[in-house]
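Before relying on records like the one below, remember that each one covers exactly one chain. Contacts with other chains, cofactors or solvent are not represented anywhere in the record.
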Amino acid sequence: MLSKRIIPCLDIKNGRTVKGVNFVSLRDAGDPVELAAQYAQTGADELVFLDITATEEARATLANLVHDVAEAINIPFTVGGGIRSVEDVDILLKNGADKISINSSAVRNPQLINDLSSKFGSQCVVVAIDAKEIDGQWKVHLVGGKVPTELDLFEWAQEVEQRGAGEILFTSMDHDGTKDGFANKALAKMCELVNIPVIASGGAGKKEHFIDVFKDGKADAALAASVFHFGEIPISELKNDLKQAGIQVRI
């Protein structure tokens, strides 16, 4: 069995790490390079860097900042936000990203998943999916959760796998920043439907939530932001608790 992964997420706006609730009410969480280095030293398995306003502002991801973060860490590093082409990905990989994450651009141009997987390998391609439950149906949202679509979460997850995605990063907008736990029922359903790793995002508030997301949600990795950024859950303590709960982690 593969070890379960703990992944801090750096949501970047104006060159700073920020964190909100339900995708809004952002507050400053610190310098991304300093935070990244700290996570690499304290047991994070990977790091995700999301330039959260790049798509909305129709600009490229902050390549210089990506380079600075990559220089400060020695763990796998995924970068997303504003990626629209093979050329965008080439720039980010050259600046130190190990994997890239696409979201809105994948929905608008699904062929991009095929193109990126073909050129860089599926192991490099993470498709992020932001979704919200509306009248009992999970619907995909774009542009940092601001634009609803009629796309079904589970159908889209299966399609991105078929098109060559190597991983899915699923964020429940209903759970994001609430600290009430992950969307385990939806996660478990997704994990049954696809054969690629699923990273759970949205809702981490205490250590028990991570145990639940691995046992009940069947996730391969758990991503969180504020509980790590503000020192509420030290990663080393979390991993010890996970191990004691019978969950395989790297320590």
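The chain has a mean pLDDT of 92.
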